[in-house]
Specification:
The chain has 511 residues and is mainly beta. 0% of the residues lie in helices and 49% in strands. The protein has four domains: 25-177; 192-331, no CATH class; 334-465, Immunoglobulins (Immunoglobulin-like); 466-511, no CATH class. The protein has strands at residues 25-38, 42-56, 61-65, 76-81, 86-90, 93-96, 109-117, 123-125, 133-138, 144-146, 153-159, 164-177, 192-199, 215-221, 224-228, 238-244, 247-251, 255-259, 262-271, 279-281, 287-293, 298-301, 307-311, 320-324, 328-331, 343-349, 356-362, 378-384, 387-391, 422-428, 434-443, 446-449, 453-458, 461-464, 470-476, 482-483, 489-497, 502-509.
Length: 511
């Protein structure tokens, strides 16, 4: 653990940006911070947490990583130890957004700076060096805490060259010994079995009809249960439960590691019309119970009212990365086979700036025989005037840098309903004559591709390349068996067209 030492060092503003961890004595700390951000009005938060690294060199220079956890900065800021056993941090200092998705490289640079609230409640950057000096004090327990700021002052991000507040600020910071950050993993030699979500919620993005999402892995060592990939945002993280007959009991409060330098905890909540945001956090001793059905090889929630959340708040509030409501998991092995063609392809002008257009389409996670496909095996290709642009499965969730591809795509893919099959691509484009989408299934190194669904574009909109009529339709269940859809559910529809071609689509039948 780092500690205060009596060194005389003059505080000085740092002008050089530091990307790599500096040399010196380093240690991990639990950073607890409070502050506010701009919404319809200022929203305040308390005791958010992140695990960060602090470094002190032999000359008393003090380096802070991720000093502003509300954004994923990939640079360090520099402070200085002083005679009175404090650390002084002179602002402003320059920060760089980690892996920034910007057309203009200059857009990725910001200044960490002190702001003062005006009489209208708007923060503005201060220029006085004395007011831009942060002082951290060592505690007897080895903690390092920011000396309280004057009323109305906060630490925020100054957008350059606009010289304005970015919309997020911190008002207090404290560093303490970081708890053990090791995560649960199954013992060596224990293998799992993968199941796909077929019902879930993402806040207000619950799909109808139900769809198939990412896979969750269950592994067992005796009665110890290990559940991997429970969160879409943290696919490599495992949590632990206990097997009790056909029940898997999964306790609350387990660490999920970090996402964008924020600590994430597995917790549970319930709908509550009287609570802020419509949900209230359940007690720490709440357990989520999966019930396994051997005949259907599925896991379901024992109590559908208990909602899984991956929470970044530590003050009893709810600030979740992802919410999973009434989950149901169905066994889904790695699957070979040609995927169904994309469907529901539409195109329209969004009106966001000149020539900004939208391409919408659905990716059916099924083979042409109606067998479920794991989402991580899938990718798709866009064709603009037959020029191919490939989007991999891992890109579905975070967006893809698009400024280096043809037709000046607008920065990144805009993905709707990340666990859903609906995709939306936003782009600024003109001068093309056709667009198309192809779904690709990759399994054991082999690639299976659907037909390319192609549309032509003209001044009157988007039109199918061929206007063949449907002459025959047949329904199949998800096991590939012909069905009359006597019961409700999701089915594969096989359509034979007048030109002899065959198309497949996924339909929901209600009874």
């Amino acid at each position: 653990m780092l500690s205060g030492v009596a060194l005389l060092m003059a505080s000085a503003q740092t002008t050089d940006v530091i990307f790599e961890q500096p040399e010196g004595l380093s240690d991990e700390y639990l950073m607890t911070y409070s502050g506010f951000y701009a919404s319809m009005e200022l929203e305040y938060f308390n005791d958010m947490q992140a695990t960060v690294t602090l470094v002190m060199d032999t000359e008393g220079k003090f380096y802070f990583s991720n000093i502003f956890p509300l954004m994923d900065f990939g640079t360090w800021v520099t402070g200085q130890m002083t005679y009175d056993n404090t650390v002084e941090l002179q602002l402003p200092q320059t920060l760089y957004v980690q892996e920034a998705e910007y057309d203009d490289e200059d857009d990725a640079w910001y200044d960490l700076q002190v702001f003062e609230m005006d009489e209208d409640g708007m923060p503005w950057p201060v220029t006085d060096p004395d007011k831009n000096l942060l002082v951290f004090e060592w505690g007897d327990d080895g903690s390092l805490q920011l000396r309280p700021l004057p009323e109305g002052y906060s630490i925020g991000i100054n957008v350059q060259p606009a010289d304005m507040w970015m919309g997020m600020s911190m008002t207090s910071i404290k560093y303490e010994d970081a708890p053990d950050s090791s995560l649960v993993t199954p013992p060596d030699g224990v293998t799992g079995k993968k199941y796909s979500y077929i019902t879930y919620g993402m806040g207000n993005a619950a799909p109808d009809p139900k769809d198939f999402g990412y896979r969750v892995e269950f592994a067992f060592d005796g009665d110890d249960a290990y559940i991997g990939g429970l969160s879409l945002d943290l696919p490599s993280v495992w949590v632990k439960g206990q097997r009790d007959g056909n029940r898997i009991v999964m306790p609350s409060g387990q660490s999920m590691g970090q996402m964008s330098v924020m600590n994430v905890t597995l917790q549970y909540c319930k709908e509550d019309e009287n609570a802020l945001g419509g949900y209230s956090l359940l007690p720490d001793d709440t357990e989520f119970v999966w019930v396994y059905d051997e005949e259907s090889d599925t896991y379901k929630a024992e109590d559908p009212s208990v909602i899984i959340i991956f929470n970044t708040a530590t003050d009893g509030s709810i600030k979740f990365l992802q919410m999973v409501e009434d989950p149901e998991l169905v066994y889904q092995p790695d699957t070979k086979g040609v995927p169904m063609s994309p469907w529901g392809l539409t195109y329209y002008e969004r009106g966001r700036g000149e020539n900004f257009d939208i391409l919408d389409f659905n990716l059916p996670m099924l083979t042409v025989d109606g067998v479920l496909l794991p989402r991580e095996q899938l990718s798709y290709r866009l064709y603009m005037d037959d020029e191919q642009i490939e989007v991999l499965a891992e890109d579905f969730d975070s967006g893809v840098d698009m400024w280096d591809v043809p037709y000046d795509f607008d920065r990144y893919l805009i993905v709707c309903n990340r666990m859903n099959t609906a995709h939306e691509v936003g782009f600024r484009v003109s001068g093309y004559e056709s667009l198309g989408v192809q779904l690709v299934n990759t399994c054991d190194g082999e690639e299976y591709a659907s037909d390319v669904v192609t549309y032509v574009v003209d001044d009157s909109g988007v039109h199918a390349v061929d206007a063949a009529e449907v002459t025959e339709e047949t329904l199949f269940d998800l096991n590939g068996m012909r069905s009359n859809a006597a019961t409700g559910g999701i089915y594969v529809k096989r359509s034979v067209l007048s030109d002899g071609s065959v198309r497949y689509s996924k339909v929901a039948v209600t009874r």
